[in-house]
Write a structure and sequence with these properties.
Blueprint: H1 25-33, E1 39-44, H2 47-61, E2 68-69, H3 74-79, H4 82-95, E3 100-105, H5 107-112, H6 116-125, E4 134-138, H7 147-162, E5 173-176, H8 182-195, E6 199-201, H9 227-232, E7 238-242, H10 244-258, E8 262-265, H11 270-285, H12 291-311, E9 315-320, H13 322-334, E10 338-344, H14 349-359, E11 367-369, H15 374-383, E12 388-391, H16 396-402, E13 406-408, H17 426-448
Parallel strand pairs: 1-2, 1-3, 3-4, 5-6, 5-7, 7-8, 9-10, 9-12, 10-11, 12-13
């Protein structure tokens, strides 16, 4: 096993990350851009950057990811990428005919200092960007932040370039879903529809990265937020932003630009966070939560009660992105489990304090690390055994090395498919999480118990 040499001795590392629990900004910008209808994500840098980001998203979603690149060579690296980007605009609009191109930068173009807004203006004046077509940009240097930062920056760019106010406030709510799966975005929309509010969701990757198979390839599937909806966000009366790191920047920018008040919520994972989301919708729409959702909530509570004997006081090691971890850790506490170590690859001292406060009722000594890595988590677990590991696909090596039940959660998940089809948000998502955790415990027990001790019935 490749990780058998990992020791329990923890050495402080300031200049090195081993298996960082994150990836770089442009991949987040690309994911956000894919949630806009007829949008072509464009990587302003080398071919390798774009190829990596496309392949990673393709492997996670099991869908072909479309994106273009400025294809930097040595010349562009020295003299700048103006010519490359102008040529790219010409080729993109003539060959792929998108309605909008969302340019995001890479390390190389950021170090060079390319002035993307000026290049876009010149390309528009010169007719390289055809009339009626749009190009926008987001700065997403890979040497700072993480993929969630890039997602947030791209969402903010949509607001900066496109949202506008006509002065007529509409009875519509803006929903920023945060970095979640297409199935989660669909669940957020389902819940809002059941509560009875009109909304615009940005971005929206449902029906884009989980589109139905009908025998024909569509470069731009039916899903995604339309440009008209992006513009109309400035006339909404409220913005609900899910996930503070992924969505606050866009919501705040929209509030400053178009005077649309905003409310930031945690991702609705589990009972309390879903309650908060539905309550915010209910109050905003001056409506009520339907009986159907009350029954969904009751079914989740019932399953938590039924499975409590398998979950109570079980120690959990978990890693991932800050927004997702905040809500998932809260849910673990709700169902009686004890988060033992929580690791994120993204910086955030305030986030660390928030996690400690959440865990205080069950584990005052929880180990919380931002800007850390999976290697640190593995060393800590060796010295402090836990009952369950949760995280993305890269955690499977730690789980195998330590013989731990493993529940996949977050991004990327490269070796399973359910994450793109079934939500983890909402009451329905909570049911699935409880099922996966309980199954992981029981599967391990079935593997290890002697034949005469294997239980046939729970």
């Amino acid at each position: 096993m490749m990780l058998e040499g990992t020791t329990a001795e923890i050495r402080e590392r300031k200049a090195l990350r081993v298996n960082p629990a994150k990836t770089c900004q442009p991949i987040g910008a690309m994911y956000a851009a894919l949630g806009i209808h007829k949008c072509m994500p464009h990587s302003h840098g080398s071919q390798g950057c774009c190829a990596y980001h496309r392949s990673h998203l393709t492997r996670h979603h099991k869908e072909p990811i479309v994106a273009t690149t400025s294809s930097f060579t040595e010349g562009a690296s020295v003299f700048g990428g103006l010519a490359n980007l102008k040529t790219a605009f010409s080729n993109i609009f003539s060959i792929y005919n998108p309605d909008i191109v969302a340019v995001h930068t890479t390390c190389l173009s950021e170090v060079i200092g390319d002035d993307i807004p000026t290049i876009i203006k010149k390309s528009t004046v010169e007719g390289i960007i055809p009339e009626g077509k749009i190009a926008i940009h987001a700065n997403t240097p890979s040497f700072v932040g993480s993929h969630v930062t890039g997602f947030a920056n791209q969402c903010e760019a949509f607001v900066k370039y496109l949202s506008e106010s006509t002065g007529e406030t509409k009875n519509v709510i803006n929903l920023f879903p945060g970095w979640v799966e297409p199935a989660d975005m669909r669940e957020l929309k389902r819940l809002a529809t059941l509560v009875g509010v009109e909304f615009i969701m940005t971005p929206d990757t449902s029906d884009v990265l989980d589109s139905a198979m009908d025998g024909k390839y569509e470069m731009y599937p039916e899903g995604g937020t339309t440009i008209d909806d992006l513009k109309a966000m400035g006339d909404s009366f409220l913005t609900l932003a899910m996930g503070p790191l992924a969505s606050t920047t866009a919501a705040t920018t929209l509030e400053k630009k178009c005077q649309v008040p905003s409310q930031v919520l945690e991702l609705p994972i589990g009972v309390a966070a879903t309650d908060a989301y539905l309550n915010a919708l209910r109050l905003a729409g001056d409506t009520s939560v339907p009986r159907e959702l009350e029954r969904e909530r009751g079914r989740l509570i019932d399953m938590i009660s039924d499975m409590s004997q398998y979950l109570h006081k079980k120690k959990v090691a978990i890693f991932g992105d800050p927004d997702n971890l905040t809500s998932m850790v809260s849910f673990l506490v709700e169902i009686g489990m004890e988060p033992a170590i929580v690791v994120s690859g993204t910086r955030g001292k305030k986030w660390e304090a928030k996690i400690r406060e959440i865990c205080k009722p069950v584990n005052e000594n929880v180990e919380v690390r931002s800007f850390s890595d999976i290697h640190y988590l593995h060393q800590w677990v060796k010295a402090n055994p836990v009952d369950l590991l949760m995280g993305n696909t890269y955690g499977k090596f730690v789980a195998k090395s330590e013989n731990l039940p493993f529940v996949r959660f977050g991004f990327p998940i490269l070796d399973r498919v359910g994450h793109r089809a079934f939500p983890t948000l909402g009451y329905a998502g909570g049911l699935r999480i409880v099922e996966k955790i309980t199954d992981a415990f029981l599967d391990k027990r079935d593997r290890e118990d002697a034949d005469e001790n294997i239980e046939l019935v729970l």
